[in-house]
Amino acid sequence: MKFFKDIFTESLEEGKFSSKKAVGVFAAALAFLGFLVDGFHFYDINNHMFDSMLIFSGTMLGASVVKSFKKGSGEQK
């Protein structure tokens, strides 16, 4: 359970919940579910929808990672 808590936590020292990471993981899970539904031919899903969901998921997760790098480099100075 600690593994999942660490994924959604913004800062381990402060224990803040990261909404960017949560939304990014949720969007990635929806995209994965869409791939499964399309792969088993239950529904035909447009490829542009997959692209937009993956881009959104990557952006949310990437924004959180960039923010943590920026915060880490500012503390060293």
Could you characterize the architecture of this molecule?
The protein is elongated. It has one domain (18-76). β1 and β2 (16-17) form a beta hairpin. 9% of the residues are buried. α2 runs antiparallel to α3. The protein is 75% helix and 6% strand. The protein has 77 residues and is mainly alpha-helical.
Q: How many strands, what sense, and barrel or not for the largest sheet?
A: 2 strands, antiparallel
Shape: elongated
Q: Would you tell me the overall average pLDDT?
A: 78
Strand order of the largest sheet: 1-2
Count of individual helical segments: 3
Helix content: over 70%
Uncertain spans, ≥5 residues at pLDDT below 50? none
Number of domains: 1
Rg, rounded, reads: 16 Å
SSE class: mainly alpha
* Share of β-strand residues: 5-15%
Order of secondary-structure elements: HEEHH
- E-strand count: 2
Please write out the topology.
Layout: H1 2-8, E1 9-11, E2 16-17, H2 19-39, H3 47-76
Antiparallel strand pairs: 1-2
Helix pairs in contact: 2-3
Provide a short characterization of the protein structure.
The protein has one domain.
Attribute tags:
77 residues, two-stranded antiparallel ribbon, 2 strands, 75% helix
